[in-house]
Amino acid sequence: MQRTARAQPNIALIKYWGKRDSGLNLPAVGSISITLDTLYTEMSIELDPTLEADVLRINDEPAPGMLPRVSACIDSVLGATRERARIDSHGNFPVAAGLASSASAFAACVVAADALDATERSRATLANLAGRASGSAARSLFGGFVELANREDSVHVESLLDAGEWPLEVVVAITSEHEKAVGSGEAMEISRRTSPFYGRWLAEQDADLDTARQAIAARDVDALGTIAEHNCLKMHSVMWTSRPPLVYWTAATIACMETVRRLRDAGTPVFFTIDAGPQVKAVCEPSAAGAVEAALAATPGVLRTLRTPLGEGARLVNQA
Ligand code: PMV
Fold first, then answer.
1. To test the ligand 1 pocket, which listed residue (25, 186, 275, 279) has its Cβ within 8 A of the most ligand atoms?
2. Nearest-CA neighbor of 15 among 190, 139, 186, 144?
3. Distance 98 CA to ligand 1 centre (A)
4. Could you tell me the distance, in angstroms and rounded to a whole number, from the CA of residue 60 to the centre of ligand 1?
5. Which of 71, 158, 264, 273 is the most interior residue, by most CB within 10 Å?
């Protein structure tokens, strides 16, 4: 029996950085994200009683390094005594470069695994299971504007607005295709232990979430951009002031931020956000997306750009 699910990455506007429980992988703060549309991961899982161990291929290459996390994610859905699985994952964007490939992969993983038995699991359950594998993956179960809120020993994830209710677009400026040096899980732990700003970061997050929620309800791109850029720069301040410092930016990352500021000063409704990688994501009104993409593509150090509207949450794509 084989099931395939597709999920898109999401980009946080109010960021998650830091864990309150690393065993259960529970985030220290809530977050708000947007789910993308045209970038995706498709994961097929086939249970096969003749296999002695799980087998994972990513983009047609064996991927033993990622296998333990993917196997554990399938176990979390189907139980560890399940039949072994042949897992095939395909994505149409670079892996591990701050583009949340783990979010789309683990969101697709839980949806495909869920369809392999008769148990009916709620989206809330699947979001929590995806979140155990990668905190941000919980958000890719939902489309449009998504809020992840902390509960006592779990997370609550819901859509604030569907993609069609406020159709913003995202332009991603790719400035490096290298995998990041320090993965986000390890980096968050370094920040928690060593950054003098970590406590302030946690203390201010609820206010930032309130401000962003109001801006989304009012569909106010200026207000959303102001709080999203502030929150992003605070997260990177925590990273920079960690020991050792976690600096994911390159000169091109900063040049892209300048491009976005210049466009905004000239009246274009656009703002930036940056995750644990060197890429810059510019969020804008659809009418501005062409100009934003052209300006970022012309910025020194930008290798290429991707452009996408907002999309829906993870879903099953076949019943083979
Ligand atoms: O879910 P993880 O472990 O890949 O961490 C994601 C962290 C950021 O992308 C930097 C912020 C976020 O909220 O997505």
1. 275
2. 139
3. 8
4. 26
5. 273
Contact assessment for residue 170 and residue 307, using Cβ atoms and an 8 Å cutoff: yes
Cα of 275 from ligand 1 centre, angstroms: 7
> Distance (Å, rounded) from C-alpha 76 to C-alpha 70?
10
Measure the CA–CA gap between 75 and 89, rounded to whole angstroms.
17
Q: In the chain, which stretches have pLDDT less than 50? A: none
Question: Which ligand 1 atom sits closest to the C-alpha of 16?
Answer: 13
pLDDT given for residue 66 in this prediction = 93
Contact 46, 74 (CB under 8 A): no
**What is the per-residue pLDDT for 98?**
60
198-230 per-position pLDDT tens digit: 999 999 999 999 999 999 999 999 999 999 999
pTM, whole model, 2 decimals? 0.96
CA 51 to centroid of ligand 1, rounded, Å: 33
- pLDDT tens across 224-251, in order? 999 999 999 999 999 999 999 999 999 9
Burial tier of 113 (Cβ tally within 10 Å: 0-12, 13-18, 19+):
buried
The reported pLDDT for the residue numbered 101 is: 79
